[in-house]
């Protein structure tokens, strides 16, 4: 539990009740992030995400505890969350997802990283990922994704992470009100929320082969997003022969990146 991230964030240890020791300073950081992001997300995120924030009882006054979210999700969708160190192995990651459980890094960013942090922290994990875990169709996708990634094994992980990136992290969805976002990287970042909706980034209809061949960079706002029709359709896409599709994506090669290769 002493492993540190590049920015010096160490994993937190829970007490006997499973609660993490957040400080008064953490409470202020959480409250500031929560209030700012709630203002930024109206008309950006899909309704079920915004409803999920209320359903989970997330608010500006308290840093949420993983155990409380886990209990609520268990009752609502049979999903759950588990506190993990900031960096976990892909096998553990996929294993948790296949159990309908989402891994949650539990440290919270410091003030100097208020606007951007490369590592997923508690705000990204809880505010970004957990609201949609109140939605059964979304949880079905998460579970199916985990099962498939686990079955496919190491040689296919890289492409499965791409699929994860362009859906769970930065996915858009067509709604009756127009395109909205459901990805956690958009939900938890003001810059990404603005970028996804300002019309400057490319928005493509979701196509699995297209996604599998599209490279990404983790340290910039995204130049391209993919919009799904529904979570059900996304899950169905995973029922295809992924071995054959990923092999084909590998032999066709990657699309030319829409970003500079060098940082
Ligand atoms: Fe994430």
Automatic annotation (TrEMBL):
Q: Which GO terms describe its molecular function?
A: iron ion binding; phenylalanine 4-monooxygenase activity
PROSITE patterns per record:
BH4_AAA_HYDROXYL_1, BH4_AAA_HYDROXYL_2
Q: Which UniProt keywords apply?
A: Iron, Metal-binding, Monooxygenase, Oxidoreductase
Query: Record's SUPFAM superfamilies?
Result: Aromatic aminoacid monoxygenases, catalytic and oligomerization domains
Q: What is its EC number?
A: 1.14.16.1
The cofactors it requires, by name, are: Fe(2+)
Segments forming domain Biopterin-dependent aromatic amino acid hydroxylase family profile:
1-263
InterPro entries attached to this UniProt entry: ArAA_hydroxylase, ArAA_hydroxylase_Fe/CU_BS, ArAA_hydroxylase_sf, Aro-AA_hydroxylase_C_sf, Aromatic-AA_hydroxylase_C
- Report residues binding Fe cation: 124, 129, 169
Which NCBIfam families does the annotation name?
A: PRK11913.1-2
Family listed: Belongs to the biopterin-dependent aromatic amino acid hydroxylase family.
PANTHER family per the record? AROMATIC AMINO ACID HYDROXYLASE, PHENYLALANINE-4-HYDROXYLASE
Q: What is this protein called?
A: Phenylalanine 4-monooxygenase
Q: Which organism is it from?
A: Halocynthiibacter styelae
């Amino acid at each position: 539990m002493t492993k540190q991230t590049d920015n010096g964030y160490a994993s937190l240890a829970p007490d006997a009740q499973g609660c993490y020791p957040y400080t008064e300073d953490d409470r202020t950081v959480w409250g500031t992030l929560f209030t700012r992001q709630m203002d930024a997300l109206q008309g950006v995120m899909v309704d079920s995400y915004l409803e999920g924030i209320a359903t989970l009882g997330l608010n500006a006054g308290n840093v949420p505890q993983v155990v409380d979210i886990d209990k609520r999700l268990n009752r609502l969708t049979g999903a759950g969350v588990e506190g993990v160190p900031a960096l976990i192995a892909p096998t553990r990651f996929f294993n948790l997802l296949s159990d309908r459980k989402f891994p949650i890094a539990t440290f919270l960013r410091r003030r100097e990283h208020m606007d951007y942090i490369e590592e997923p922290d508690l705000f990204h994990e809880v505010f970004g990922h957990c609201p949609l875990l109140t939605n059964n169709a979304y949880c079905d996708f998460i579970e199916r994704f985990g099962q498939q990634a686990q079955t496919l094994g190491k040689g296919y992980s890289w492409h499965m992470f791409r699929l994860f990136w362009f859906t769970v992290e930065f996915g858009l969805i067509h709604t009756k009100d127009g395109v909205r976002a459901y990805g956690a990287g958009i939900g938890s970042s003001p810059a990404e929320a603005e970028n996804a909706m300002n019309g400057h980034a490319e928005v493509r209809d979701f196509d699995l082969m297209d996604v599998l061949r599209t490279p990404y960079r983790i340290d910039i706002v995204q130049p391209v997003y993919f919009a799904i029709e529904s979570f059900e359709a996304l899950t169905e896409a995973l029922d295809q022969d992924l071995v054959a599709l990923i092999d084909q994506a590998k032999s066709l090669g990657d699309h030319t990146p829409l970003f500079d290769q060098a940082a």
